[in-house]
Amino acid sequence: MTPIEIIQNLLAGGLLGLIGQGIRMAIGLKKLSDVNAGKDAATAEKPDGTRLLISLFIGFIAGALFLLTKGDNPVFTTEFIFSAMAAGYSGADFIEGLFSNTLGKMNAQATVATTTTVTTAPASPVVTTTTTTPASTAAAPITAAPVDNTITNNITLPTQTDSSEPDATNTNS
After folding, report:
1. Statement: the pTM of the whole predicted model exceeds 0.90
2. What mean pLDDT do residues 26-39 have?
3. Are 84 and 75 contacting, i.e. CB atoms less than 8 angstroms apart?
4. Is residue 55 exposed (0-12), middle (13-18) or buried (19+ Cβ within 10 Å)?
5. pLDDT the model gives residue 115
6. Contact yes or no for 115/105 (Cβ under 8 A)
7. 3-state class (DSSP) for residue 132
8. Which end of the chain has less Cβ packing within 10 Å, N or C?
9. What is the full DSSP assignment across 45-96?
10. Quick count: other Cβ atoms within 10 Å of Cβ 43?
11. C-alpha angle 104/16/73, rounded to 5°?
């Protein structure tokens, strides 16, 4: 198969998938119209044009992928054409469901987060460390006991020393 034939087959499969998705979209718009029939214009749900275009594009991709699986030089019989349209119809539904579940989980993880604050002992300089953790890995809040100016992430804080005291490490005085 030459590259031109591959592109032609992908376009043919994509267009058949787009037609299948167009049928699915027409059914959905009819259902939306029936639901909105008893409502006034203010409360009626409006169709989303962007979502409709994305849906048609997904149908195109599903049809093109269907044709890719059929190998070299597929024979375009009536059965094959309706199979490619059905791939666009059902494949788009599958892909949309997969993305909505995956994106829904990612959005839930991004919006729910926990904050943990660790503060050192009052006698030492006060340092507060705040960490935000995604909800998928969120655990119980972490509390640390004060330990000689050292926080659990091993950052040592300087202590105040009196300059009049001799340096304990200097033995030559």
Report:
1. no
2. 88
3. no
4. buried
5. 47
6. no
7. strand
8. C
9. PPP-HHHHHHHHHHHHHHHHHHHHHT-SS----HHHHHHHHHHHHHHHHHHH
10. 8
11. 115
Burial of 145 (0-12, 13-18, 19+ CB in 10 A): exposed
From CA 40, how far away is CA 43, in angstroms rounded? 6
CB 117 within 8 A of CB 128: yes
The b/e string for 79-90 (b: 16+ C-beta within 10 A; e otherwise) is ebeebbbbbbbb
Question: Which residues, in sequence order, are bridge partners of residue 139?
Answer: none
User: Distance (Å, rounded) from C-alpha 34 to C-alpha 89?
Assistant: 21
pLDDT in tens, 66-76: 888 887 778 88
Place of tokens 């169709």: 47
Q: How many residues does the chain have?
A: 173
Tell me which residue has tokens 């119809």. Answer: 89
82, HSE (Cβ side, Cα atoms, 13 Å): 3
HSE (CB half, 13 Å, CA atoms) of 38?
3
Res 22: pLDDT: 92
